[in-house]
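Appendix B, example 12.
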Amino acid sequence: MNIGSMKTPDTREEFEMNFHFVQEQVNRGKLNVMRGVETGLEKMRVLPNGRIDLLSIDESARVTANTMANFARRFKDLQVEDEVDEGEEPAPDV
């Protein structure tokens, strides 16, 4: 499997979607942070209109959000590939 490079968001919408994805993972208990370790995610602020305050995002928060979103996309792609592989007829022995 070729890992390749990480896709970075092209728009603010994609950028914010990555952070909302991370927030959902935290709420579901899928992302745990060690006690006493302050992350950039904890410093992130949400504006009154529901948008993310881009000035409150540091490098660690950005990397965490982009990495988790990329991992989720690749994992989903792998699941789809596995489903396709399972649905194919095996090649006949010649």
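The mean pLDDT is 78. The CA atoms of residues 18 and 65 lie 5 Å apart.
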